[in-house]
Each structure stands twice: as C-alpha cells, then as structure tokens.
Amino acid sequence: MSSSRRSRSRQSGVPRITDDQLAHLVSKLQHLIPELRRSRSDKVAASKVLQETCDYIRSLRREVDDLSDRLSELLASTDMDSEQAAIMRSLLM
Amino acid sequence: MNPSSLKSRFTTRFLRALTKINAHKPISSSSPGPGEIFQRYRRIKVAADKSMAYSVRSRRTWSRATLWRLRTRSPRSRLATHARRSWVKTRSTRAASHGKEKKEDGGTVEAEELRELVPGGEAMDLCNLLDETAHYIKCLTTQLDILDRQECTSREL
User: Fold this and answer.
1) pLDDT at B135 over 90
2) A76 vs B contacts (CB less than 8 Å)
3) Exposure string (b/e) for B70-87, b if CB count within 10 Å is 16 or more?
C-alpha cells in the first residue's frame, strides 16, 4: 500500500522526516509546556507531548477569552490615554 | 524571532485597537448594558488575534491562516471561503499522506487534534505542524502576558 503511494509523482522530491528531526521538534515542544517541563529528566512519548500541547493551547485560548471578558467590563470606565502610557511604562520597566 | 520586538509590535497594535473600541461610547452616560459589554468582549478578542497575526504577518503559516480567516469573516466573501476550503482540501490530502509515514510512532490521533487547534494546521505536514505549534504557543503566551498587564493597569487606574 505505501509503495504505491510513494510511486505517485507528487510524492517525489519530498524528503522523509527523520526520527532525529521529529524527536528534536517534539523535544522543543516539550520544553514549552509547563506540565512537561517539570518532568524534564525522563523522555516523554511523542503522543503524550502532543496531547499535552493540545490541552495547553486550549487552556491558553481560554485564558485569553477570560481576560478579554474581564477587560470588556473594565474598559467601560477607563480613560485610554493615561492607560496607554501606563502600559507602555510597565513594559519598558 | 526576538520576543521583545514581537511584544512591542503586538502591544502597539493592540493598544491602538483598544482605543478605538473604547471610543464606542454609549449615547447615554449611564453604565453600558450586557449587550454592549458582550460586543466589546468580542471586539477585544478579535483585536487580540488580529494584532498578533499582523505582528507576525506572512512569516508563518498559522498567522497567514488567521489573517485569511479574519479577512473572509464577512458574509459577502462566501466565494473566498469556498475557494479556501478547496485549497485546504488539496493541501491536507497531500499533507495527510506525509503524516501517515510516521504512524508507527503513535500520536497520529493527537496530531490530528493539534491540526484543528493550530490555524492552518490541516494543510501542514507533521514537521511543519510541530514547528508552527511551537511558534504559535510562544505568541499565545505573549498575547496573554500583554492582556494580563492591560487588566492590571486598568484595575489600578
């Protein structure tokens, strides 16, 4: 089955992903995810890294949602110019 | 990518958007109703995603996909949505056959799940998906950081 797929012309010229490349990319992800960063000593299975990555992305998006929600209520009563200045100041600190 | 410059590009755009959103004041001076707050919430969410995607521009597949999605949101562009769907289908068929080569590693199901979470993921092969995901996560955490600071600042004022 896979040999017939490889013989199709649009497959030619495309390099196979090496195990090392994949392991490197998975490890890069592993270090970005707080849950997995703690268990740095053991090598984590790729499927677990991917699963945790999905959960992490969902939780990040949820947090952005919650913050947007809170901001929508806060902004109603704020003067934007002084706020802008304050934000910029806090960033440069 | 230098995180501090991405941060400043995002912050500038986002603050500009917030100023515009805040300029939508209600006619009466009384406190805004829940409908108005919900509109503002939606505009802030879009502003956050738009600012981030524009800060990254076309350098990444995920940002290009986000920009495309934002541009073709209106009902007038139903044709563009259809065109994009057929483009995605072609690319994802090609990408899926790449991904299947690594089925023995396990995690194909999780990779599919990840493809749905990362913008443009359905058209990426596994290698690109992992690379784009790492960048996407970095940008999401930057976005979160700025929104968090904005909230703290708003509470202090």
Assistant:
1) yes
2) 31-32, 37, 40
3) eebeeeeeeeeeeeeeee
